[in-house]
Design brief:
76% helix; 10 helices; globular; mainly alpha
Length: 274
Amino acid sequence: MELDLPAVQSAVQSLARHAVPAFGVALAGVVAAVCGLWWLALRYGVHRETSRFTAPAYLLGYVALGFGLILGAAALFAEVAENLGDGRKLGQLDLLFSDTIRATVSPGALQLFAWLTHLGDPLTLTVLCIAGALALVWRRRPALCIGWVAAIAGNGVLNKVLKSIFERTRPVHEHGLAFADGWSFPSGHSSGSVVAYGMLAYVLVRLLPARQARARLPIVAAAVALAFTVGCSRVFLQVHFATDVLAGFASGSAWLVVCIAAVELAHWRRGRKS
């Protein structure tokens, strides 16, 4: 589809004019998708005791799935990055979307997103990282602690490197509700929230006793909802373009899968040696 067609531009403007209800629909859809994937995993992926597949076969399947997710996220990131730049059509749609949001979203909605966006601030995620590391040390879970710290800190380094490579300027944000400097692509709040809250959900799911298994899905759904909301808040506050957030989701998801796979592989290898 040609991105500069009048119909495409009109659709982008219409979406921006109804950005708040569209966000609610998208959030519900993302959470519903997670619940559906969780049901599929419970039905077909985790009942090893009744399966004819061996533990190494399950590990190989999970590695293949993780590799596919990494490739998909990387491909999405590359596609977005390739179509950005001065005069590129996707960048022009980004600007149109941001300008329309600036003109149509109510101050009350912006105030709400200005509060929610702090859940992805570097300070918030740093405090979360330190608190989680101390809790895991206290519980004597060194492998999880290393994976936890490496995931959050590593994503921070990765995001800085990516920003310095692409050097995209931010959209204009003059409302005074949020302040951001530095380069815009990809969104650090988006990738950081995906990694931090995704790893938090993973750690909690790993540590929950079997009798509290029903709490696992709400934990994962809450983590997804938090990360998605923080990322979208950056677009509403006009400190990032929509494609910055999309790329942040992609890079954060890829890094999250890598870190979880590394922890799981280490756990499997220790199990074989014991």
